[in-house]
Write a structure and sequence with these properties.
Layout: E1 2-7, E2 12-21, E3 24-34, H1 40-58, E4 62-66, H2 74-93, E5 97-101, H3 103-110, H4 118-128, H5 137-165
Length: 166
């Protein structure tokens, strides 16, 4: 299984890809999609095109996206939601199942506590993917999302296999 993790953002959309074989995780690639332009439509198009390039190049088989929280600024929340739509839409366009995870669930899965800070998340990503060269905190978060998905997908698969035996 090759998992694409996406940390949605309008300026910086982090992404990370891991290969999963049983309980073994291997880093494939990570980076940050950056939007350019003055108007929202242009910025979203930049993100869309970059996400398409990532999927065409790395051929993930599953995708996971972090849910976003609503902040007090409604306008910024709406813009972030539109960037998140790109993170959901592009993998779906390529036929991938897209799972969504709350930030606290990602942190709890990767670090062990749901309110871990970015440094703790980055540290645990580096421990679980030895030798990884991170392209910033957004890509570290995206790899954490991919790791979270790998654990939950493997657990769900084992659960369904056990049910079939019964």
């Amino acid at each position: 299984m090759r998992v694409l993790g996406i940390d949605p953002g309008l300026r910086n959309m982090g992404w990370g890809i891991i290969d999963v074989k049983g309980n073994k995780l291997n880093h494939v690639a990570n980076g940050v999609c950056k939007s350019e332009g003055e108007d929202l439509a242009t910025r979203l198009l930049y993100l869309f095109d970059q996400m398409e390039e990532i999927l065409q190049r790395w051929h993930p088989t599953q995708a996971a996206v972090e849910n976003t929280f609503i902040n007090k600024d409604g306008v910024n929340s709406l813009k972030l939601a539109q960037a998140r739509a790109i993170a959901l839409l592009v993998p779906k366009k390529f036929g991938l199942n897209v799972s969504e995870y709350a930030p606290n669930k990602v942190k709890k899965t990767v670090v062990g506590v749901g309110h871990a800070d970015k440094q703790q998340v980055t540290h645990m990503v580096q421990l679980q993917l030895p030798g990884v060269q991170l392209n910033g905190p957004d890509s570290a978060d995206a790899l954490a999302i991919a790791i979270c998905h790998s654990y939950h997908a493997v657990s769900n698969n084992r659960f369904h296999q056990a049910l079939e035996k019964v």
